[in-house]
Amino acid sequence: MNELVLNEEHYEKVINGVLCQAQRFLWLVTADIKDLHVEGPGGRYIPLLSVLADLVDEGVEIRLVHAKEPGPAFREDFDRFPALIESERFERILCPRMHMKAVIADGRVAYIGSANLTGAGLGAKSPTRRNFEAGILTDEAETIETLMAELDKLYLGQHCGDCGRREHCPDPIA
């Protein structure tokens, strides 16, 4: 499957269709990250961080890779979820060179596209308040394996030694 995802379809197909369906592991890769909210129980909107904390509590391992420190609203919400701070199942990496946008669930399905992990990119915003976004949902094993291999190189710090932006990196991996 290779399915084009446009604009407001991102919320249903990426958040509800990929992210929330993860059972073993979830990789989230973004340049920008903000205090994104999603529909929770009873139609109430909750921080995506709450959904991630619930997934961690259910045993899902999560890797979050992003390019810059999030703003104060995200940091304040983040601190409300001990599972994201204390669990070894949640890992967060900051890489100033990261510009990819991807969501990978269990190595079986991936979103690759333009949408950042923000309300205007993937969140529950109205069509008139969100960004114009495009991406692809895929379950093609070779594509997902290649993407995961590249992200593993980043995760292991293989790019750190030759990085031309090291002076801008607040927490080099290697």
Characterization of the model:
There is one protein chain. The protein is of the alpha+beta class. It has a single domain (2-168), classed as Endonuclease Chain A (Endonuclease, Chain A, 2-Layer Sandwich). 26% of the residues lie in helices and 24% in strands. The chain has five helices and nine strands. It has helices at residues 9-16, 48-57, 72-78, 82-86, 141-155, and strands spanning 2-6, 25-30, 37-39, 45-47, 61-66, 90-94, 102-105, 109-113, 134-138. The strands form two sheets. It has a seven-stranded mixed beta sheet, with helices on both faces. The protein has a two-stranded antiparallel ribbon with strand order 3-4. The chain is globular, with a radius of gyration of 15 Å. The protein starts with a strand and ends in a 19-residue tail after the last helix. The model has no long low-confidence stretch (mean pLDDT 92).
Question: What's the short story on this structure?
Answer:
The chain is of the alpha+beta class and 174 residues long. It is 26% helix and 24% strand.
What are its keywords?
single chain; 174 residues; alpha+beta; Endonuclease, Chain A; seven-stranded mixed sheet; two-stranded antiparallel sheet; 5 helices; globular
Q: How does CATH name the architecture?
A: 2-Layer Sandwich
**CATH domain fold name:** Endonuclease, Chain A
The chain-level mean pLDDT equals: 92
Pick out the low-confidence regions.
none
SS field, number of helical segments: 5
| Major sheet details | 7 strands, mixed
| CATH C-level class | Alpha Beta
* Shape label: globular
Count of discrete structural domains: 1
Arrangement of strands in the largest sheet:
1-9-8-7-2-5-6
H/E topology pattern: EHEEEHEHHEEEEH
CATH superfamily: Endonuclease Chain A
Question: What's the total count of β strands?
Answer: 9
Q: Provide the helix percentage.
A: 25-40%
Radius of gyration, taken over Cα atoms and rounded to an integer in Å: 15 Å
First-to-last CA distance? 37 Å
Give the percentage of residues in beta strands. 15-25%
Structural class: alpha+beta
